[in-house]
Structure formats: structure tokens, C-alpha cells
Design a protein that fits this description.
heterodimer, A: about 160 residues, alpha+beta, six-stranded antiparallel beta sheet, 4 helices, about 25% helix, globular, B: about 0% strand
């Protein structure tokens, strides 16, 4: 994770486009300026960033399901639960499942596990549109390479 | 057996917390019931699941934006119900 850059996931461990599931790994950094404020003397991973990690995980699944032709944007967060504190240095596994593919929107069920137990979960809604510009698409392709997204396999079906 | 309109009205009432008796076939989901595009995604989700279809929201939105259709054609509930019936019939064809 590079919290200051909103890079919340590190590696795609497994993606199954047919089954509409993805598992990613995310290592909470030991140090970050975020922890200086959240909270002084008691650093905790902010809940909003855990939700963002779940959104990004779901987002990669949707990008794969949409053949890397469209960009999903978070539209709604439902039933988000933060079941325990997440501390600096923890290793997280985030698992998402596509709940519904609508016309221009999609919903996912997603959960974060730490130490083998579910620590957060939510149902997320996304709207998705064709990539709005070449710069964003290029950035996402570079990020895909970085996190082990099977870009060529997705492109060629 | 409930009509398509009844099912849609029940979905809207439950999803958006709107009193069921205020929802009529002539109601415009946006203009009369105050449902915005984000809330309508929850309704579309419930309709898609209930009827086993995929409401073509992107196509409808594009048609409205291009001036080829009016929102009344898709979002007045009697018209929405008719569109759903067409999609269900097309699925079974």
C-alpha cells in the first residue's frame, strides 16, 4: 500500500473472470504520514481507506469483467462494517465477488481478511463508463502491470 | 397474480421508502417520486433480479440525452412496466 497515493492494493493473488471473483493482497505500511493524524500515539488504518481498498479490489474485478474497456467508479457503500482495528504492518487479503452486472452499473460483495478472519466487509455499487481519457487508461494499464493483473489474457479473452 | 406495475411499485416503495399508496401507474419515477439516478440503480438491481432481465439503462439514458426519447417513455411507471414486459417476452422468445 502507498496510502498517500491511494494505492491500496499490492498484488492480485487470483482473479477468475468466469467465476467473477478476485483475491488481492495488501500490506499495510509500518509508517505513513496518515498514521500521524489517525491517531497520534495510537495509529490505526482509517476505515475510509479500508473501504477504498475494498472498492479498488472490486474495481479490478470489474475492469477484468469489462475487458479493460470501461472504468468503474464507486457510487454507493452499503452495510460497511469495520469489525476490528487494523494496525500498521498488518497483511490483508481482500476478496471480492461480483453480485450483479447491470447496464452501466455493477454491485460487489467484498471483504477484508487479516489473520484468517474477516475484519471488514461491504456491498458496493459502481457506475462504469468507457475510459474517459487516454491518460487514465494509460495509468490503469501501468498499475495493472505493477500489481500482476493479467492484462494480455483479459484483452485477448 | 400481481401485475408488473404492482411488482415495480412494491420494489420502489421498499427500496426508496416511499409510501406504496402514493405510487400510481402515472407516477414519473424522477419527477413525481423524486428518485435520483443513484437510487434508481437499486431499483434497477431489484427489477433485474425479480424479472431475470437487464434493464438497458445506458441505452435509455443515451436516447434521452440525444433527444431521441423522453424520460416519460421510460420512467413513467406504466411505461416502465411495459418495457419490462417487453424485455421478459424477448427473453422467453
Amino acid at each position: 500500500m502507498r496510502l498517500e497515493y491511494f494505492q491500496l492494493i499490492d498484488r492480485i493473488a487470483e482473479i477468475d473472470v468466469g467465476a467473477r471473483t478476485v483475491t488481492v493482497e495488501a500490506d499495510v505500511p509500518s509508517e505513513s504520514t496518515i498514521f500521524e493524524g489517525h491517531f497520534p500515539g495510537y495509529p490505526l488504518m482509517p476505515g475510509v481507506l479500508l473501504i477504498e481498498a475494498m472498492a479498488q479490489t472490486s474495481g479490478w474485478l470489474l475492469i477484468a469483467a469489462l475487458n479493460f474497456e470501461r472504468m468503474p467508479f464507486l457510487a454507493a457503500v452499503k452495510e460497511a462494517k469495520m469489525r476490528r482495528f487494523i494496525s500498521p504492518g498488518e497483511k490483508l487479503t481482500v476478496k471480492a465477488r461480483l453480485l450483479h452486472e447491470g447496464s452501466g452499473y455493477a454491485m460487489t460483495d467484498v471483504a477484508i481478511e487479516a489473520g484468517g478472519k474477516t475484519t471488514c466487509n461491504a456491498t458496493l455499487t459502481f457506475s462504469h463508463v468507457p475510459f474517459p481519457n487516454a491518460e487514465l487508461r494509460s495509468h490503469m494499464e501501468a498499475m495493472a502491470q505493477k500489481i500482476g493483473f493479467p492484462l494480455e489474457a483479459i484483452r485477448h479473452g | 397474480m400481481s401485475t408488473t406495475f404492482d411488482q415495480v411499485a412494491n420494489i420502489i416503495a421498499e427500496t426508496c421508502d416511499i409510501p406504496r399508496d402514493t405510487i400510481t401507474p402515472e407516477s414519473h419515477a424522477i419527477d413525481d417520486l423524486g428518485i435520483d439516478s443513484l437510487d434508481f440503480l437499486d431499483i434497477a438491481f431489484a427489477i433485474d433480479k425479480a424479472f431475470g432481465i437487464k434493464l438497458p439503462l445506458e441505452k435509455w439514458t443515451q436516447e434521452v440525452n440525444d433527444g431521441k426519447a423522453t424520460t416519460e417513455q421510460y420512467f413513467v411507471l406504466k411505461n416502465l412496466s411495459a418495457r419490462i414486459d417487453e424485455l421478459v417476452a424477448a427473453k422467453g422468445a
